[in-house]
Write a structure and sequence with these properties.
heterodimer, A: mainly alpha, ABC transporter involved in vitamin B12 uptake, BtuC, two-stranded antiparallel ribbon, 11 helices, 2% strand, B: mainly alpha, two-stranded parallel ribbon, 15 helices, 4 strands, 74% helix, globular
Protein backbone atom coordinates (compact mmCIF):
# COMPACT_ATOMS: atom_id res chain seq x y z
CA UNK A 1 0.00 0.00 0.00
CA UNK A 2 3.05 2.24 0.24
CA UNK A 3 3.03 2.76 -3.51
CA UNK A 4 -0.63 3.79 -3.56
CA UNK A 5 -0.04 6.17 -0.68
CA UNK A 6 2.94 7.69 -2.50
CA UNK A 7 0.92 8.07 -5.68
CA UNK A 8 -1.89 9.85 -3.82
CA UNK A 9 0.44 12.31 -2.13
CA UNK A 10 2.40 12.75 -5.36
CA UNK A 11 -0.77 13.51 -7.30
CA UNK A 12 -1.87 16.01 -4.65
CA UNK A 13 1.34 18.02 -4.73
CA UNK A 14 1.39 17.52 -8.50
CA UNK A 15 -2.02 19.20 -8.77
CA UNK A 16 -0.65 22.21 -6.95
CA UNK A 17 2.52 22.36 -9.04
CA UNK A 18 0.32 22.17 -12.13
CA UNK A 19 -1.83 25.04 -10.87
CA UNK A 20 1.21 27.22 -10.23
CA UNK A 21 2.78 26.15 -13.52
CA UNK A 22 -0.41 27.10 -15.41
CA UNK A 23 0.00 30.64 -14.03
CA UNK A 24 3.55 30.74 -15.38
CA UNK A 25 2.43 29.37 -18.74
CA UNK A 26 -0.38 31.83 -19.37
CA UNK A 27 2.02 34.71 -18.65
CA UNK A 28 4.69 33.19 -20.86
CA UNK A 29 2.30 32.49 -23.71
CA UNK A 30 0.75 35.92 -23.64
CA UNK A 31 3.73 38.14 -22.90
CA UNK A 32 6.74 35.98 -23.77
CA UNK A 33 8.24 36.48 -20.32
CA UNK A 34 8.72 34.12 -17.40
CA UNK A 35 7.77 35.54 -14.02
CA UNK A 36 10.45 34.53 -11.52
CA UNK A 37 8.44 36.19 -8.75
CA UNK A 38 5.44 33.91 -9.32
CA UNK A 39 6.43 31.74 -6.34
CA UNK A 40 6.54 34.81 -4.10
CA UNK A 41 3.09 35.82 -5.34
CA UNK A 42 1.89 32.39 -4.21
CA UNK A 43 3.51 32.96 -0.83
CA UNK A 44 2.12 36.49 -0.37
CA UNK A 45 -1.31 35.27 -1.52
CA UNK A 46 -1.20 32.60 1.16
CA UNK A 47 -0.36 35.24 3.76
CA UNK A 48 -3.30 37.37 2.56
CA UNK A 49 -5.64 34.47 3.33
CA UNK A 50 -3.86 33.93 6.64
CA UNK A 51 -4.39 37.59 7.54
CA UNK A 52 -8.09 37.57 6.64
CA UNK A 53 -8.95 34.21 8.14
CA UNK A 54 -6.63 33.64 11.09
CA UNK A 55 -5.70 37.16 12.19
CA UNK A 56 -8.96 38.98 11.42
CA UNK A 57 -11.37 36.08 11.87
CA UNK A 58 -13.19 36.36 8.55
CA UNK A 59 -14.97 33.07 7.73
CA UNK A 60 -13.20 30.64 5.42
CA UNK A 61 -14.96 31.13 2.09
CA UNK A 62 -15.15 34.96 2.17
CA UNK A 63 -11.48 35.11 3.15
CA UNK A 64 -10.62 32.78 0.27
CA UNK A 65 -12.42 35.08 -2.14
CA UNK A 66 -10.90 38.21 -0.56
CA UNK A 67 -7.43 36.67 -0.79
CA UNK A 68 -7.86 35.73 -4.44
CA UNK A 69 -9.05 39.27 -5.21
CA UNK A 70 -6.12 40.74 -3.26
CA UNK A 71 -3.79 38.41 -5.15
CA UNK A 72 -5.22 39.67 -8.44
CA UNK A 73 -4.68 43.27 -7.32
CA UNK A 74 -1.08 42.39 -6.46
CA UNK A 75 -0.63 41.04 -9.99
CA UNK A 76 -2.23 44.17 -11.45
CA UNK A 77 0.02 46.44 -9.39
CA UNK A 78 3.19 44.61 -10.36
CA UNK A 79 2.11 44.92 -13.99
CA UNK A 80 1.51 48.64 -13.70
CA UNK A 81 4.65 49.39 -11.70
CA UNK A 82 7.12 46.95 -13.23
CA UNK A 83 6.16 44.60 -16.04
CA UNK A 84 4.45 47.08 -18.35
CA UNK A 85 7.53 49.29 -18.46
CA UNK A 86 9.70 46.36 -19.51
CA UNK A 87 7.47 44.58 -21.99
CA UNK A 88 9.61 45.69 -24.92
CA UNK A 89 12.94 45.43 -23.09
CA UNK A 90 15.29 42.52 -23.81
CA UNK A 91 14.35 39.31 -21.94
CA UNK A 92 17.31 39.82 -19.63
CA UNK A 93 15.86 43.00 -18.14
CA UNK A 94 12.57 41.24 -17.40
CA UNK A 95 14.25 38.21 -15.81
CA UNK A 96 16.38 40.43 -13.59
CA UNK A 97 13.37 42.60 -12.72
CA UNK A 98 11.21 39.63 -11.72
CA UNK A 99 14.04 38.09 -9.67
CA UNK A 100 14.45 41.47 -7.96
CA UNK A 101 10.68 41.67 -7.38
CA UNK A 102 10.73 38.20 -5.83
CA UNK A 103 13.29 39.30 -3.25
CA UNK A 104 11.37 42.50 -2.61
CA UNK A 105 8.14 40.54 -1.97
CA UNK A 106 9.97 38.02 0.21
CA UNK A 107 11.49 40.80 2.29
CA UNK A 108 8.14 42.56 2.65
CA UNK A 109 6.47 39.29 3.70
CA UNK A 110 9.19 38.66 6.29
CA UNK A 111 8.72 42.21 7.52
CA UNK A 112 4.92 41.97 7.81
CA UNK A 113 4.37 38.35 8.79
CA UNK A 114 7.80 37.11 9.89
CA UNK A 115 6.91 37.83 13.50
CA UNK A 116 4.21 35.14 13.30
CA UNK A 117 6.81 32.41 13.71
CA UNK A 118 8.93 30.70 11.13
CA UNK A 119 6.06 28.54 9.86
CA UNK A 120 2.45 29.56 10.32
CA UNK A 121 -0.25 26.89 10.36
CA UNK A 122 -3.35 27.47 8.29
CA UNK A 123 -6.62 25.67 8.96
CA UNK A 124 -8.17 23.55 6.24
CA UNK A 125 -11.73 23.82 4.99
CA UNK A 126 -12.41 20.20 5.90
CA UNK A 127 -11.45 18.18 8.96
CA UNK A 128 -7.72 17.70 9.32
CA UNK A 129 -7.88 14.08 10.46
CA UNK A 130 -6.77 11.47 7.93
CA UNK A 131 -9.39 9.01 6.70
CA UNK A 132 -9.19 5.53 5.21
CA UNK A 133 -10.34 5.33 1.63
CA UNK A 134 -10.13 2.03 -0.27
CA UNK A 135 -7.44 0.96 2.18
CA UNK A 136 -5.29 4.07 1.67
CA UNK A 137 -4.78 6.78 4.28
CA UNK A 138 -5.56 10.18 2.80
CA UNK A 139 -6.06 13.65 4.21
CA UNK A 140 -9.42 15.16 3.21
CA UNK A 141 -7.59 18.37 2.26
CA UNK A 142 -5.75 16.39 -0.43
CA UNK A 143 -9.02 15.65 -2.18
CA UNK A 144 -9.98 19.32 -1.90
CA UNK A 145 -6.67 20.36 -3.49
CA UNK A 146 -7.06 17.83 -6.25
CA UNK A 147 -10.73 18.66 -6.87
CA UNK A 148 -10.39 22.44 -6.94
CA UNK A 149 -7.15 22.14 -8.89
CA UNK A 150 -8.75 20.03 -11.60
CA UNK A 151 -11.79 22.30 -11.64
CA UNK A 152 -9.61 25.37 -12.11
CA UNK A 153 -7.72 23.71 -14.95
CA UNK A 154 -10.92 22.70 -16.74
CA UNK A 155 -12.30 26.20 -16.25
CA UNK A 156 -9.13 27.76 -17.68
CA UNK A 157 -9.13 25.45 -20.69
CA UNK A 158 -12.76 26.33 -21.38
CA UNK A 159 -11.99 30.01 -20.91
CA UNK A 160 -9.21 29.85 -23.47
CA UNK A 161 -11.22 27.81 -25.94
CA UNK A 162 -14.64 29.38 -25.75
CA UNK A 163 -14.73 32.91 -24.37
CA UNK A 164 -13.91 36.14 -26.08
CA UNK A 165 -11.41 37.07 -23.37
CA UNK A 166 -9.62 33.76 -23.78
CA UNK A 167 -9.49 34.06 -27.53
CA UNK A 168 -8.15 37.61 -27.23
CA UNK A 169 -5.39 36.30 -25.00
CA UNK A 170 -4.54 33.58 -27.49
CA UNK A 171 -4.52 36.05 -30.34
CA UNK A 172 -2.15 38.31 -28.42
CA UNK A 173 0.09 35.34 -27.73
CA UNK A 174 0.10 34.41 -31.39
CA UNK A 175 1.11 37.82 -32.65
CA UNK A 176 1.21 40.96 -30.59
CA UNK A 177 1.22 43.22 -33.65
CA UNK A 178 -1.61 41.44 -35.45
CA UNK A 179 -3.73 41.51 -32.30
CA UNK A 180 -3.06 45.22 -31.96
CA UNK A 181 -4.09 45.77 -35.57
CA UNK A 182 -7.44 44.04 -35.15
CA UNK A 183 -8.23 46.25 -32.18
CA UNK A 184 -7.12 44.22 -29.21
CA UNK A 185 -5.84 46.42 -26.41
CA UNK A 186 -2.64 44.49 -25.91
CA UNK A 187 -1.68 46.26 -22.68
CA UNK A 188 -5.03 45.40 -21.10
CA UNK A 189 -4.63 41.79 -22.10
CA UNK A 190 -1.22 41.76 -20.43
CA UNK A 191 -2.61 43.34 -17.25
CA UNK A 192 -5.43 40.81 -17.14
CA UNK A 193 -2.96 37.98 -17.65
CA UNK A 194 -0.61 39.01 -14.82
CA UNK A 195 -3.60 39.57 -12.53
CA UNK A 196 -5.16 36.21 -13.40
CA UNK A 197 -1.88 34.39 -12.84
CA UNK A 198 -1.38 36.00 -9.44
CA UNK A 199 -4.98 35.22 -8.44
CA UNK A 200 -4.46 31.61 -9.52
CA UNK A 201 -1.27 31.40 -7.44
CA UNK A 202 -3.20 32.73 -4.44
CA UNK A 203 -5.89 30.10 -4.91
CA UNK A 204 -3.23 27.37 -5.00
CA UNK A 205 -1.62 28.81 -1.86
CA UNK A 206 -4.88 28.84 0.10
CA UNK A 207 -5.60 25.25 -0.89
CA UNK A 208 -2.14 23.99 -0.14
CA UNK A 209 -1.30 26.00 3.00
CA UNK A 210 -3.01 23.53 5.40
CA UNK A 211 -0.73 20.78 4.08
CA UNK A 212 2.55 22.66 3.77
CA UNK A 213 2.17 25.63 6.19
CA UNK A 214 3.39 29.09 5.25
CA UNK A 215 6.87 30.56 5.45
CA UNK A 216 8.37 33.52 3.57
CA UNK A 217 10.85 31.14 1.93
CA UNK A 218 8.24 28.79 0.47
CA UNK A 219 7.91 30.72 -2.80
CA UNK A 220 11.20 29.92 -4.45
CA UNK A 221 11.20 26.17 -3.89
CA UNK A 222 7.68 26.05 -5.27
CA UNK A 223 8.65 28.19 -8.25
CA UNK A 224 11.45 25.76 -9.13
CA UNK A 225 8.98 22.86 -9.13
CA UNK A 226 6.48 24.76 -11.26
CA UNK A 227 9.30 25.73 -13.63
CA UNK A 228 10.32 22.08 -13.84
CA UNK A 229 6.73 21.17 -14.74
CA UNK A 230 6.63 23.95 -17.34
CA UNK A 231 9.94 22.96 -18.91
CA UNK A 232 9.02 19.28 -18.90
CA UNK A 233 5.78 19.98 -20.72
CA UNK A 234 7.46 22.34 -23.17
CA UNK A 235 7.69 26.03 -22.28
CA UNK A 236 4.39 27.66 -23.18
CA UNK A 237 2.37 24.47 -23.51
CA UNK A 238 -0.57 24.47 -21.10
CA UNK A 239 -1.65 20.80 -21.16
CA UNK A 240 2.05 19.96 -21.12
CA UNK A 241 2.56 22.00 -17.94
CA UNK A 242 -0.39 20.25 -16.25
CA UNK A 243 0.96 16.81 -17.13
CA UNK A 244 4.43 18.02 -16.15
CA UNK A 245 3.13 19.13 -12.74
CA UNK A 246 1.71 15.70 -11.99
CA UNK A 247 4.88 13.99 -13.25
CA UNK A 248 7.05 16.17 -10.99
CA UNK A 249 4.78 15.55 -7.98
CA UNK A 250 4.83 11.78 -8.43
CA UNK A 251 8.57 11.70 -9.21
CA UNK A 252 9.25 13.60 -5.99
CA UNK A 253 7.14 11.28 -3.88
CA UNK A 254 8.76 8.18 -5.38
CA UNK A 255 12.30 9.61 -5.17
CA UNK A 256 11.77 10.45 -1.50
CA UNK A 257 10.60 6.94 -0.69
CA UNK A 258 12.82 4.77 -2.84
CA UNK A 259 16.07 6.76 -3.21
CA UNK A 260 16.53 9.00 -0.20
CA UNK A 261 14.35 11.39 1.76
CA UNK A 262 16.55 14.30 0.68
CA UNK A 263 16.16 13.34 -2.99
CA UNK A 264 12.68 14.88 -2.91
CA UNK A 265 14.02 18.44 -3.05
CA UNK A 266 16.52 17.75 -5.78
CA UNK A 267 14.40 15.91 -8.34
CA UNK A 268 12.92 19.12 -9.76
CA UNK A 269 16.36 20.63 -10.46
CA UNK A 270 17.54 17.41 -12.04
CA UNK A 271 14.45 17.29 -14.27
CA UNK A 272 15.03 20.89 -15.44
CA UNK A 273 18.68 20.25 -16.26
CA UNK A 274 18.02 16.92 -17.97
CA UNK A 275 15.17 18.22 -20.11
CA UNK A 276 17.05 21.34 -21.15
CA UNK A 277 20.14 19.35 -22.08
CA UNK A 278 18.41 16.45 -23.81
CA UNK A 279 15.30 18.00 -25.36
CA UNK A 280 14.89 21.71 -24.66
CA UNK A 281 11.46 21.81 -26.29
CA UNK A 282 10.10 19.50 -23.59
CA UNK A 283 8.01 16.37 -23.88
CA UNK A 284 5.32 17.92 -26.03
CA UNK A 285 7.19 20.73 -27.77
CA UNK A 286 5.37 24.04 -27.79
CA UNK A 287 3.68 25.43 -30.85
CA UNK A 288 5.09 28.73 -32.04
CA UNK A 289 8.40 27.84 -30.47
CA UNK A 290 10.57 30.81 -29.63
CA UNK A 291 14.36 30.73 -29.85
CA UNK A 292 15.69 28.02 -27.57
CA UNK B 1 25.86 61.57 -27.27
CA UNK B 2 29.18 63.37 -27.18
CA UNK B 3 27.53 66.76 -26.78
CA UNK B 4 25.33 65.68 -23.86
CA UNK B 5 25.56 68.18 -21.03
CA UNK B 6 28.27 67.30 -18.53
CA UNK B 7 27.63 68.08 -14.88
CA UNK B 8 31.27 68.57 -14.01
CA UNK B 9 34.72 67.43 -14.93
CA UNK B 10 36.22 64.53 -13.01
CA UNK B 11 38.51 62.24 -14.99
CA UNK B 12 38.07 58.57 -14.26
CA UNK B 13 41.82 58.18 -13.83
CA UNK B 14 41.82 60.46 -10.76
CA UNK B 15 39.07 58.51 -9.05
CA UNK B 16 40.70 55.19 -9.86
CA UNK B 17 44.05 56.47 -8.61
CA UNK B 18 42.48 57.71 -5.38
CA UNK B 19 40.66 54.40 -4.91
CA UNK B 20 43.87 52.49 -5.56
CA UNK B 21 45.82 54.47 -2.97
CA UNK B 22 42.88 54.28 -0.54
CA UNK B 23 42.63 50.51 -0.72
CA UNK B 24 46.43 50.17 -0.56
CA UNK B 25 46.69 52.02 2.76
CA UNK B 26 43.59 50.64 4.50
CA UNK B 27 45.52 47.98 6.48
CA UNK B 28 47.97 50.62 7.74
CA UNK B 29 45.27 52.97 9.02
CA UNK B 30 42.11 51.10 9.96
CA UNK B 31 41.11 48.38 12.40
CA UNK B 32 40.83 44.67 11.63
CA UNK B 33 37.09 45.01 11.17
CA UNK B 34 37.48 47.49 8.32
CA UNK B 35 40.30 45.43 6.81
CA UNK B 36 37.86 42.50 6.74
CA UNK B 37 35.09 44.52 5.05
CA UNK B 38 37.49 46.01 2.51
CA UNK B 39 38.82 42.53 1.80
CA UNK B 40 35.29 41.22 1.16
CA UNK B 41 34.76 44.16 -1.20
CA UNK B 42 38.00 43.32 -3.06
CA UNK B 43 36.88 39.72 -3.50
CA UNK B 44 33.53 40.85 -4.86
CA UNK B 45 35.27 43.13 -7.36
CA UNK B 46 36.84 40.01 -8.87
CA UNK B 47 33.45 38.25 -8.84
CA UNK B 48 31.55 41.15 -10.38
CA UNK B 49 34.13 41.70 -13.11
CA UNK B 50 34.02 37.98 -13.93
CA UNK B 51 30.20 38.00 -14.07
CA UNK B 52 30.22 41.13 -16.21
CA UNK B 53 32.38 39.39 -18.83
CA UNK B 54 29.80 36.66 -19.36
CA UNK B 55 26.63 38.65 -18.56
CA UNK B 56 27.47 42.15 -19.72
CA UNK B 57 29.87 41.61 -22.60
CA UNK B 58 28.81 38.24 -23.98
CA UNK B 59 25.15 38.74 -23.06
CA UNK B 60 24.60 35.29 -21.58
CA UNK B 61 22.03 35.28 -18.77
CA UNK B 62 23.68 32.90 -16.28
CA UNK B 63 22.90 32.37 -12.62
CA UNK B 64 25.75 29.92 -12.02
CA UNK B 65 28.46 32.32 -10.84
CA UNK B 66 27.27 32.49 -7.24
CA UNK B 67 27.62 28.76 -6.99
CA UNK B 68 30.96 28.57 -8.85
CA UNK B 69 32.14 31.08 -6.26
CA UNK B 70 30.94 28.52 -3.69
CA UNK B 71 32.71 25.66 -5.44
CA UNK B 72 35.98 27.63 -5.38
CA UNK B 73 35.49 28.39 -1.69
CA UNK B 74 34.54 24.82 -0.80
CA UNK B 75 37.32 23.21 -2.86
CA UNK B 76 40.00 25.49 -1.39
CA UNK B 77 38.66 25.19 2.15
CA UNK B 78 38.14 21.44 2.14
CA UNK B 79 41.57 20.77 0.62
CA UNK B 80 43.01 22.73 3.54
CA UNK B 81 40.84 21.14 6.24
CA UNK B 82 40.52 17.53 5.13
CA UNK B 83 43.54 17.00 2.87
CA UNK B 84 45.77 19.29 5.01
CA UNK B 85 47.09 21.06 1.96
CA UNK B 86 48.72 24.43 2.56
CA UNK B 87 46.74 27.38 1.23
CA UNK B 88 49.28 28.05 -1.50
CA UNK B 89 48.44 24.73 -3.16
CA UNK B 90 44.78 24.55 -2.16
CA UNK B 91 43.99 28.00 -3.62
CA UNK B 92 45.11 27.27 -7.22
CA UNK B 93 43.68 23.75 -7.02
CA UNK B 94 40.33 25.11 -5.77
CA UNK B 95 40.27 27.69 -8.56
CA UNK B 96 41.02 24.93 -11.07
CA UNK B 97 38.20 22.74 -9.70
CA UNK B 98 35.70 25.60 -9.93
CA UNK B 99 36.86 26.30 -13.48
CA UNK B 100 36.49 22.66 -14.51
CA UNK B 101 32.96 22.50 -13.07
CA UNK B 102 32.14 25.81 -14.72
CA UNK B 103 33.26 24.51 -18.11
CA UNK B 104 31.44 21.20 -17.61
CA UNK B 105 28.23 23.14 -16.96
CA UNK B 106 28.92 25.47 -19.87
CA UNK B 107 29.30 22.68 -22.43
CA UNK B 108 25.62 21.65 -22.45
CA UNK B 109 24.61 25.28 -21.78
CA UNK B 110 26.20 26.37 -25.08
CA UNK B 111 23.05 25.16 -26.83
CA UNK B 112 20.80 27.33 -24.71
CA UNK B 113 19.96 30.99 -24.88
CA UNK B 114 17.93 33.59 -23.05
CA UNK B 115 15.26 32.21 -20.75
CA UNK B 116 16.30 28.60 -21.27
CA UNK B 117 19.85 29.38 -20.21
CA UNK B 118 18.57 31.26 -17.17
CA UNK B 119 16.38 28.31 -16.19
CA UNK B 120 19.13 25.71 -16.64
CA UNK B 121 21.65 27.71 -14.62
CA UNK B 122 19.14 28.48 -11.84
CA UNK B 123 18.49 24.73 -11.61
CA UNK B 124 22.23 24.04 -11.55
CA UNK B 125 22.75 26.62 -8.82
CA UNK B 126 20.04 25.05 -6.66
CA UNK B 127 21.39 21.58 -7.36
CA UNK B 128 24.92 22.57 -6.28
CA UNK B 129 23.52 24.22 -3.15
CA UNK B 130 21.72 20.96 -2.38
CA UNK B 131 25.03 19.10 -2.76
CA UNK B 132 26.73 21.54 -0.36
CA UNK B 133 23.99 20.89 2.21
CA UNK B 134 23.40 17.15 1.86
CA UNK B 135 26.77 15.59 0.98
CA UNK B 136 27.86 15.75 4.62
CA UNK B 137 30.77 13.37 4.22
CA UNK B 138 32.40 15.69 1.70
CA UNK B 139 31.09 19.15 2.52
CA UNK B 140 30.44 18.95 6.30
CA UNK B 141 26.72 19.61 5.72
CA UNK B 142 24.61 22.57 6.84
CA UNK B 143 27.02 23.76 9.52
CA UNK B 144 29.93 23.97 7.07
CA UNK B 145 33.64 23.68 7.81
CA UNK B 146 36.02 25.88 9.78
CA UNK B 147 39.26 26.65 7.97
CA UNK B 148 42.58 27.10 9.81
CA UNK B 149 44.13 30.57 9.54
CA UNK B 150 46.76 31.09 6.90
CA UNK B 151 50.42 31.07 7.67
CA UNK B 152 52.72 33.66 6.14
CA UNK B 153 55.54 32.09 8.19
CA UNK B 154 58.83 33.51 6.94
CA UNK B 155 57.33 36.95 6.41
CA UNK B 156 56.47 39.12 9.43
CA UNK B 157 52.82 39.78 8.47
CA UNK B 158 49.65 38.90 10.36
CA UNK B 159 47.22 36.72 8.34
CA UNK B 160 44.39 39.28 7.75
CA UNK B 161 46.83 41.83 6.33
CA UNK B 162 48.57 39.16 4.27
CA UNK B 163 45.33 37.94 2.69
CA UNK B 164 44.27 41.52 2.16
CA UNK B 165 47.30 42.33 0.06
CA UNK B 166 47.01 39.02 -1.75
CA UNK B 167 43.42 39.95 -2.68
CA UNK B 168 44.55 43.45 -3.61
CA UNK B 169 47.14 42.07 -6.03
CA UNK B 170 44.58 39.64 -7.45
CA UNK B 171 42.09 42.49 -8.03
CA UNK B 172 44.72 44.51 -9.88
CA UNK B 173 45.59 41.52 -12.08
CA UNK B 174 41.92 40.61 -12.65
CA UNK B 175 40.83 44.14 -13.57
CA UNK B 176 43.91 44.73 -15.74
CA UNK B 177 43.36 41.49 -17.64
CA UNK B 178 39.62 42.15 -18.02
CA UNK B 179 40.13 45.65 -19.40
CA UNK B 180 42.66 44.43 -21.92
CA UNK B 181 40.50 41.44 -22.77
CA UNK B 182 37.39 43.44 -23.59
CA UNK B 183 39.41 45.81 -25.79
CA UNK B 184 40.95 42.91 -27.67
CA UNK B 185 39.69 40.88 -30.59
CA UNK B 186 38.19 38.42 -28.07
CA UNK B 187 36.26 41.17 -26.30
CA UNK B 188 34.87 42.47 -29.56
CA UNK B 189 33.83 38.94 -30.48
CA UNK B 190 31.98 38.72 -27.13
CA UNK B 191 30.12 41.95 -27.85
CA UNK B 192 29.27 40.74 -31.35
CA UNK B 193 27.78 37.56 -29.87
CA UNK B 194 25.76 39.63 -27.41
CA UNK B 195 24.34 41.86 -30.11
CA UNK B 196 23.41 39.00 -32.45
CA UNK B 197 24.68 35.45 -32.58
CA UNK B 198 23.72 35.12 -36.20
CA UNK B 199 25.52 38.30 -37.21
CA UNK B 200 28.56 37.15 -35.23
CA UNK B 201 28.53 33.85 -37.11
CA UNK B 202 28.32 35.75 -40.37
CA UNK B 203 31.48 37.62 -39.32
CA UNK B 204 33.22 34.23 -39.03
CA UNK B 205 33.23 34.33 -35.23
CA UNK B 206 33.25 30.81 -33.83
CA UNK B 207 30.29 31.44 -31.51
CA UNK B 208 30.42 28.27 -29.35
CA UNK B 209 34.17 28.61 -28.88
CA UNK B 210 33.98 32.23 -27.77
CA UNK B 211 31.02 31.56 -25.53
CA UNK B 212 32.93 28.73 -23.90
CA UNK B 213 35.88 31.08 -23.47
CA UNK B 214 33.62 33.62 -21.75
CA UNK B 215 32.25 30.96 -19.39
CA UNK B 216 35.80 29.75 -18.74
CA UNK B 217 37.10 33.22 -17.86
CA UNK B 218 34.19 34.02 -15.57
CA UNK B 219 34.57 30.62 -13.86
CA UNK B 220 38.27 31.33 -13.22
CA UNK B 221 37.35 34.69 -11.69
CA UNK B 222 34.55 33.18 -9.58
CA UNK B 223 36.72 30.25 -8.42
CA UNK B 224 39.66 32.44 -7.45
CA UNK B 225 37.34 34.82 -5.60
CA UNK B 226 35.84 31.82 -3.78
CA UNK B 227 39.24 30.49 -2.70
CA UNK B 228 40.19 33.83 -1.20
CA UNK B 229 36.74 34.22 0.37
CA UNK B 230 37.08 30.94 2.30
CA UNK B 231 40.47 32.06 3.60
CA UNK B 232 39.23 35.51 4.62
CA UNK B 233 36.03 34.35 6.31
CA UNK B 234 37.73 31.29 7.82
CA UNK B 235 34.73 29.04 7.14
CA UNK B 236 32.57 27.69 4.34
CA UNK B 237 28.81 27.45 4.97
CA UNK B 238 26.17 26.61 2.30
CA UNK B 239 24.12 29.72 3.15
CA UNK B 240 26.86 31.98 1.82
CA UNK B 241 26.23 30.78 -1.73
CA UNK B 242 22.44 30.78 -2.07
CA UNK B 243 20.32 32.71 -4.53
CA UNK B 244 20.77 35.91 -2.54
CA UNK B 245 24.50 35.82 -3.34
CA UNK B 246 23.60 35.77 -7.04
CA UNK B 247 21.22 38.69 -6.59
CA UNK B 248 24.01 40.63 -4.89
CA UNK B 249 26.31 39.93 -7.84
CA UNK B 250 23.62 41.00 -10.30
CA UNK B 251 23.21 44.19 -8.27
CA UNK B 252 26.94 44.88 -8.49
CA UNK B 253 27.05 44.39 -12.26
CA UNK B 254 23.77 46.14 -13.12
CA UNK B 255 23.97 49.02 -10.65
CA UNK B 256 27.61 49.58 -11.63
CA UNK B 257 26.76 49.41 -15.29
CA UNK B 258 26.38 46.37 -17.47
CA UNK B 259 29.24 45.95 -19.92
CA UNK B 260 31.52 48.32 -18.03
CA UNK B 261 34.51 46.97 -16.13
CA UNK B 262 35.05 50.03 -13.92
CA UNK B 263 31.32 50.09 -13.30
CA UNK B 264 31.55 46.60 -11.79
CA UNK B 265 34.45 47.69 -9.60
CA UNK B 266 32.46 50.62 -8.22
CA UNK B 267 29.31 48.49 -8.01
CA UNK B 268 31.04 45.81 -5.94
CA UNK B 269 32.44 48.35 -3.48
CA UNK B 270 29.10 50.18 -3.17
CA UNK B 271 27.01 47.01 -2.72
CA UNK B 272 29.33 45.51 -0.10
CA UNK B 273 29.30 48.83 1.74
CA UNK B 274 25.50 48.88 1.65
CA UNK B 275 25.28 45.26 2.78
CA UNK B 276 27.54 46.08 5.72
CA UNK B 277 25.20 48.89 6.76
CA UNK B 278 22.21 46.53 6.64
CA UNK B 279 24.01 43.62 8.31
CA UNK B 280 21.84 41.44 10.51
CA UNK B 281 18.57 42.71 9.05
CA UNK B 282 17.64 40.00 6.60
CA UNK B 283 14.30 41.44 5.49
CA UNK B 284 15.81 44.89 5.07
CA UNK B 285 18.57 43.44 2.90
CA UNK B 286 16.03 41.61 0.76
CA UNK B 287 13.82 44.67 0.39
CA UNK B 288 16.80 46.97 -0.11
CA UNK B 289 18.65 45.01 -2.76
CA UNK B 290 15.45 43.86 -4.48
CA UNK B 291 14.29 47.46 -4.73
CA UNK B 292 17.71 48.72 -5.82
CA UNK B 293 17.94 46.13 -8.61
CA UNK B 294 14.35 46.78 -9.69
CA UNK B 295 14.78 50.56 -9.80
CA UNK B 296 18.04 50.21 -11.72
CA UNK B 297 16.45 47.97 -14.36
CA UNK B 298 13.43 50.29 -14.65
CA UNK B 299 14.95 53.74 -14.60
CA UNK B 300 18.70 53.43 -15.17
CA UNK B 301 19.18 50.43 -17.46
CA UNK B 302 22.82 51.33 -18.09
CA UNK B 303 23.53 51.57 -14.37
CA UNK B 304 25.52 54.32 -12.69
CA UNK B 305 28.39 53.65 -15.06
CA UNK B 306 26.33 54.88 -18.00
CA UNK B 307 25.03 57.77 -15.90
CA UNK B 308 28.57 58.87 -15.06
CA UNK B 309 29.72 58.41 -18.63
CA UNK B 310 26.91 60.66 -19.81
CA UNK B 311 27.06 63.39 -17.23
CA UNK B 312 30.65 63.54 -16.02
CA UNK B 313 33.46 64.37 -18.41
CA UNK B 314 36.23 61.83 -18.52
CA UNK B 315 34.18 58.72 -17.65
CA UNK B 316 33.67 57.16 -21.04
CA UNK B 317 34.64 53.54 -21.29
CA UNK B 318 35.45 51.63 -24.43
CA UNK B 319 32.46 49.87 -25.97
CA UNK B 320 30.18 52.07 -23.91
CA UNK B 321 27.98 52.95 -26.83
CA UNK B 322 27.17 49.36 -27.64
CA UNK B 323 26.36 48.63 -24.02
CA UNK B 324 23.98 51.54 -23.87
CA UNK B 325 22.30 50.51 -27.09
CA UNK B 326 21.87 47.08 -25.60
CA UNK B 327 20.24 48.36 -22.47
CA UNK B 328 17.65 50.24 -24.43
Amino acid sequence: MLLTYLLVSGITSGAMYALVAVGLVICYRTTGHLNFSHGEMYMVGGYFAFTFHVLWGVPYLPSLILAVVAGGVMGLLSDRLVFRRLIKAPPMAMVVATVALSFLLKGIARFLWGGQGEFVPFPSIVSGAPVQFLGVTIFPQQTVVLGVGLLAMVALTLLFRNTRAGKTMQATAESQRAAYLVGVRVERVYSATWAAAAALATLAAVLMAPLTQLTPDIGFSLLIKALAATVLGGLGNMPGAIVGGFVIGITEALAAAYIDSTAQDVSAFVVIMLVLVVKPTGLFGAKGQRDV
Amino acid sequence: MSNAKRLFWLPRGYVIGAGFVGFAVIPLLLSQYYIFIANIALIHIVLAVGLNIVLGFTGQLVFANGVLFGVGAYATGLLMVDAHWPFWFAFPAGTAIATIIGVLVALPALRLRGLYLALATVAFAQFALWVFIHFDSLTHGVSGAVIPPLNFAPLPIIPPVGIYYLSFVLVIVAVYLAINLVRSRIGRAFVAIRESERAAEALAIDVPRYKLLAYFISAVYAGAAGGLFSAVVGAVVPDQFNLFQIVLQFCMVLVGGIGMIWGSVLGAIAIIGLQEMLRGLRELQEVGFGLLLLLTVLFLPGGFGAFLAKHVAGWRENLRNTSEDHAR
